[in-house]
Amino acid sequence: MARFISLSYCLALFGVGLFVSAQPAQVWAHGGHKPEALQIKLPQVVAQVNGVDISSATISRELKKAAGQYKRRGMPLSVDQEKAAAKKLIDDEIGRTLLVLKAKASGITITKAMMEQRLKEVQAQFRSEAVFAHKLADQGMSLDQYKTELNTDLYMDRIIKKEIEPKIQVPESDSRDYYEKNKSKFASQEKIRASIILLKFNPSKGKAGEQDVLKKFESILDQVKNGTDFAAVARKYSEDSLATKGGDLGFFTHKQMLPAFSDRAFKMKVGEVSDIFRTGHGFHVLKVTDKKPAQISPFTAEKEKIENFLKQKQVSQATRDYIEVLKKQATIKIYF
User: Which fold has domain 10-172+310-334?
Assistant: First the structure.
């Protein structure tokens, strides 16, 4: 759960036709930017929910990030836009606080082991703990602050799973209707699978050096044409990093591969071997090993994904409605 419901939070700014993603629970912000100075001044406590204070620290941090992103897009926020954004963030934090309080009142507890497990899951998405720590710093967050966010997220997840998700059902008819209306989303392009052999050449040896490489390659190509397994030849002679895999490039669409390869591969038949051709990397030979025609994935293959997507949409709306009910039952004071 990020800063709002349904695993994502978008800060909608009045009068600005963009959305700025704010996801501290996932730490995806770009690095290298200093926090933007705010034009507005927030009180130390921006709101109170059933006696629980909401400090300005989180609101200020998120607002600075959003303001910085807009400024880098050449759209600096006005004072009124900052005020509107701050009010939206405060309202969001009120909703988060209400969900946490409801979770605790329902007997939900978050253990240290649960926190450590969630933290490990997040850190595993980064190359190292150092990179994770750097990203936290970019967000203007300490590890303790981030743990506080995770703790809130866990409470929110648990109460939503307990009170809201069990009531959400997606009939197959709804999934099928979505599939029929959005078939283009399930279309796949034609794909080719091919293998290559690469022989490099040293430009300093000039034309004579190139001719020597070509003669060697022609001898290798003769072996392939006389029935020697292409993959075995690639493993023996290719100077490409894929040599250990028999030169296998895997499946790729036309745009996923350099034109020198894809333009040839998509004109060839399965089992066909190309002539020797040259790129900036050296001399190559290409063999097409398989093809997948362009097609639309059947409903049966996409049904589960569609159900999950539609369910999350319903859960998001149901959570908003749930928060509105909690607001009516709560004592809320707003100081900004």
Answer: Triger factor/SurA peptide-binding fold (1.10.4030)
Nearest to 326 by CA among 134, 26, 100, 41: 100
Residues near 275 by Cβ (< 8 Å), separated by ≥ 6?
Answer: 285
The encoded tokens of residue 101 equal 């309080």
Query: Residues in the chain, how many?
Result: 336
How much of the chain is helix, strand and coil, in % rounded to 5?
55, 15, 30
Q: For residues 133 and 264, give the distance between their C-alpha atoms in angstroms, rounded to a whole number.
A: 46
- Contact between 66 and 88 under an 8 Å Cβ cutoff? The reply is no
d(CA 24, CA 6): 14
Listing DSSP states for 173-200 in one string gives HHHHHHHHHTGGGGEE--EEEEEEEEE-
Which tops the pLDDT comparison, 270 or 201?
A: 270
Q: Return the structure tokens found at 277.
A: 């051709």
Domain spans of the chain, in order of start: 10-172+310-334, 190-293
Between CA 233 and CA 200 the distance in angstroms is 16
Q: What is the pLDDT of residues 214-269, one digit of tens each?
A: 999 999 999 998 999 999 999 999 999 999 999 999 999 999 999 999 999 999 99
How far apart are the C-alpha atoms of 291 and 188, rounded to whole Å?
A: 13
Among residues 164, 166, 170, the alpha carbon closest in space to that of 307 is found at 170
On the 0-12 / 13-18 / 19+ scale of CB atoms within 10 A, 65 is: buried
CATH topology of domain 190-293: Chitinase A; domain 3 (3.10.50)
Whether the predicted pLDDT of 119 surpasses 90: yes
The predicted-structure confidence for 12-68, as pLDDT tens digits, reads as follows: 222 332 223 333 334 333 344 566 688 999 999 999 999 999 999 989 988 998 898
Q: Is the pLDDT of residue 78 over 50?
A: yes
